[in-house]
Amino acid sequence: MRRALALAAAAALFCGCIATQRDVVALENQTDELKFQILELKKTISSMQSNQADMIVEMKQLHSDLGIFTETVKDLQGSMDKLGSKIDDVGSGVANVGTGISTKVLALGESLKEDAEQQKKDVEKIERKVAQAGAVPSPSELFLNADVRLAKKDYDLAARGFEEYVTRFPSGSLIDMAVYNLGEAYYGQGKWEAAGRQFASALERFPKSKMTPSTRLLYALCLINLKRNITEAKQYLESIPADFPKSPEAKAAAEQLKRLLSERPARKGRS
Question: Could you tell me if 218 and 184 are in contact, meaning their C-beta atoms sit under 8 angstroms apart?
């Protein structure tokens, strides 16, 4: 009778060990899957950092992936807690019967716990990077925000926005407009010197820009306001109706030329 009971207890413990080992294998597979997810998330972060031009959609998707990943980690932690209890129960039973349980099972349980802790740390790092990336506006957002300020004649904030765009994205798709708009923001502040430099840069760098007529006009006006290189200003004014006769700037340039010509006799009379 005792022998039968001992055999039954050993069989129960053996089955318990097998069940525990199956749980461990399942959790090990789950851990491998989580590690793969971490690698994919890291690749996504790296890609977003190397190309921040348009990452709004990618950001939303990454946040969604992180939410799913976090829930999976929580499920894994719960399963590991259950496994720990089961291992403790099996270990206790084995001690009573006088047999030993596989040390591999116990070691694997500890290893899984360490992996889970490391994965938590990796997730926290990724979330911090996502938060940092999300705090940085995309080129289009930065440009549009500054453009809205310019339209509202908030020239100081507009200038800051366009300055940041020009500095951070010198090869951006909107760089020609950013350089011109920065000059316009300076012009609105009465900073003729700074505005003139921006318009001169725009004319040199982007000679075929659709803003060329307006750039020439405002550059000439900067020179006039500075009372400097009036001959050059006149040449730019004359070039606008010659090269862009149907543009609104052509009429404005012609009117400004008339004003310059009418001021000459008065200046001679005063002298």
Answer: yes
Residues 45 and 38: their CA atoms lie apart, in Å, by 11
Angle value at C-alpha 107, between 106 and 112, nearest 5 degrees: 100
Ordered domains of the chain (ranges, CATH)? 2-135 (1.20.58), 139-270 (1.25.40.10)
Q: What is the pLDDT of residues 208-265, one digit of tens each?
A: 999 999 999 999 999 999 998 999 999 999 999 999 999 999 999 999 999 888 876 5
Residue 265: strand, helix, or coil: helix
Please give the Cα distance from 40 to 152 (Å, whole number): 44
Taking the whole predicted model, whether its pTM rises above 0.70 is answered as: no
Give the burial class of 186: count Cβ atoms within 10 A of its Cβ; 0-12 exposed, 13-18 middle, 19 or more buried.
buried
Sign of the dihedral through C-alpha 126, 128, 130, 136: negative
Is residue 257 within 8 A of residue 238, CB to CB? The reply is yes
136, containing H or E segment:
none
Q: How many CA atoms lie within 13 A of 257 on its CB side?
A: 17
Other beta carbons within 10 angstroms of residue 17's beta carbon come to 18
